[in-house]
Design brief:
Layout (H helix, E strand, L loop, with lengths): L3 E4 L3 H8 L13 H7 L3 H13 L2 E4 L2 H10 L6 E2 L6 H4 L5 H19 L11 E7 L9 H18 L4 E7 L4 E4 L1 H33 L10 H4 L2 H13 L11 E3 L6 H9 L9 E6 L14 H7 L2 E3 L9 H8 L4 E4 L3 H9 L8 E4 L6 H16 L3 H12 L7 H19 L47 H6 L4 H4 L7 E9 L2 E9 L17 H14 L12
Parallel strand pairs: 1-2, 2-3, 4-5, 4-9, 5-8, 9-10, 10-11
Antiparallel strand pairs: 6-7, 12-13
Helix pairs in contact: 6-8, 6-12, 7-11, 7-15, 8-10
Length: 554
């Protein structure tokens, strides 16, 4: 029997990353047997390692996991088999923009109930960000996400922004029940809506009756005759019920251990309390979404379609289905270069941010720089106009076919062929070579997106609203970098810009690499002389670039 073992994550790697360990910088120094024994998973680790060595073909889902498996499972993977999606399940073609608007209205209904008494922000100027997954506080980058939200809040308030960001965190945790305040908010808004619907219906009937009996010379129906005293009393009761003397709740459920929950504790440290002056509001939903939920009755797919951006600042993410699902549904996302999906898109697409996939550098930057980069991405997104966001969603949805199993499945076919060659070598020719068996078109990158030619065109041939902004947008002073689909890097040491026939040509851009050294103490086993010599050889150009996980490495 021919066997193929594909690991989506290593057991020991997940346990190590859950603690405060500088994981990627110290992969080659871990005493894997001792670490597995200390965590009580040695027997499971041996099964995983044995399966990796006994299989005819050993593969992983990403290059970052391949590097991890080589050191923890002690076998170098034969190839990488990226995960795919059934794109047909999520496909909505031209309808996905309408689905976004429909589901966004459903999220807005929840927000109005959750923030009743403090609905002082415009729904048309409100953006919905979210992050979701297993409750792995550090692995999923929740610590970095909350810190960046606090910095985004400060930056938006300092800039006097009129936009509001509502950030959702969907992580299942141990709960006792739904919070009373969360239920009360939805009930109060529903009562107000039902009362106004009843009053509207009664006013319509009275207005019709008075209009149909109207005769020439009479005064038209007056509003005093339409709104009865009983209707005024009912409306006044609902308005008094909308009063709230406390801040809106952060969490929608009663947690079992509220005082020690890491997400709530960091929100307290960052002072994200949903104050009326805050431009960033937070909602922690400690359950997976379901249409049967009385507070937020939406399935996960519908919720994602209604949001504006998904943010997944993971530290340990072998692949990352959540940003992939955002992509096929046309929702821009932020991921990291320590996730399999982020590395894959970074290699496949020339300027991933042009397609609505922003990649935060957690590999070569310190934690503070990575948080600032994530904050910058979110802040720039809040400054986009509605048309720019629509244009970007169109570009993001175009990447769906790249993640389809019809394309990704070919790598699995290659793995099967390689396994058959190794198990039955006599059935294949002697000239067949395994070297480069999984090599494909990874070196070919997708260039910047070109929008379809629009109408009308001006005399210079510029297209609207495709690659270049329209004349009206130019007069409004809107940024056109989303249409040009290219912008200068943040770190530019020298640039010369010249004009030629009303077109701006960017030339001679020199990037300055600013490197810093961060000394970090190793809490692992001591390096032997042989290990130190091997590390020196790796640093000379044969090893993987230094990866920063917790700000102590460089």
């Amino acid at each position: 029997m021919t066997t193929i073992f594909t690991t989506h994550a290593t057991l020991l790697g997940r346990y190590l990353c859950a603690g405060s360990v500088d994981f990627y910088n110290n992969l080659q120094y871990f005493d894997v047997d001792a670490e597995a024994g200390k965590r009580g998973i040695y027997h499971r680790y041996c099964i995983e390692r044995g399966a990796a060595h006994a299989a005819d073909v050993f593969t992983t889902v990403s290059h970052i996991t391949a590097y991890e498996s080589e050191h923890l499972l002690k076998r170098k993977p034969d190839g990488v088999l990226p995960n795919g999606l059934n794109v047909k399940k999520f496909s909505a073609t031209h309808e996905f923009q309408n689905l976004h608007q429909t589901n966004k209205d459903r999220i807005t209904d929840f927000v109005r109930g959750h923030f009743y008494g403090h609905n002082d922000f415009d729904p048309e100027k409100t953006l919905y960000f979210f992050t979701a997954g297993r409750y792995e506080y550090r692995n999923k980058g929740v610590d970095m996400f909350i810190e960046s939200l606090a910095r985004l809040n400060h930056r938006m308030k300092a800039a006097g922004s009129d936009m509001t960001v509502v950030a959702f965190m969907i992580f299942p945790a141990q709960t006792q029940s739904l919070a009373v305040e969360a239920l009360k908010g939805q009930a109060v808004v529903k009562s107000l809506k039902d009362t106004l619907g009843h009053i509207e219906k009664e006013i319509g009937k009275k207005l019709f009756e008075k209009s149909i009996t109207w005769q020439e010379g009479q005064d038209p129906p007056d509003e005093k005759d339409l709104l009865s005293a009983q209707d005024k009393i009912m409306l006044r009761r609902r308005l008094f019920a909308m009063k709230r003397h406390t801040l809106p709740p952060i969490v929608t459920h009663n947690l079992v251990n509220d005082a020690e929950d890491p997400i709530l504790n960091q929100m307290r440290r960052c002072q994200l309390f949903n104050h009326p002056s805050d431009r960033v509001k937070v909602v922690f939903h400690p359950e997976f979404l379901s249409s049967a939920n009385p507070v937020l009755p939406m399935d996960y797919d519908d919720f994602v379609r209604g949001t504006h951006m998904g943010i997944f600042s993971s530290y340990y993410e072998p692949w990352g289905y959540t940003p992939a699902e955002c992509t096929v549904m046309g929702v821009p996302s932020i991921t990291t270069n320590l996730s399999g999906f982020g590395c894959y898109m970074e290699e496949l697409i020339e300027n991933a941010s042009d397609y609505g996939i922003y990649i935060v550098d957690r590999r070569l930057k310190g934690i503070d720089d990575s948080v600032n980069q994530l904050t910058e991405y979110m802040y720039e997104f809040t400054r986009k106009s509605r048309r720019q966001r629509i244009n970007q969603r169109n570009r993001t949805e175009r990447l769906s076919d790249l993640l389809d199993w019809k394309r990704m499945g070919m790598e699995y076919v290659k793995a099967r062929q390689l396994a058959l060659r190794r198990a039955y070598p006599d059935s294949f020719g002697e000239d067949d070579d395994e070297v480069g068996f999984f090599d494909g078109t990874e070196s070919i990158k997708i260039t910047r997106p070109l929008s379809a030619p629009g109408s009308p065109r001006d005399r210079s041939g510029m297209m609207t609203p495709g690659d270049f902004a329209s004349i009206q947008e130019g007069r409004e002073g809107l940024s056109t970098e989303d249409y040009i689909a290219w912008k200068l890097p943040e770190e530019v040491s020298a640039s010369r810009i010249r004009c030629h026939e009303d077109r701006h040509i960017l030339t001679d851009v020199l990037l300055q690499e600013d490197t810093e050294d961060y000394p970090f103490p190793l809490t692992l086993k001591q390096k032997s002389k042989a290990a130190a010599l091997a590390a020196a050889n790796d640093e000379s150009g044969h090893g993987m670039p230094t990866i920063n996980g917790n700000g102590n490495g460089a």
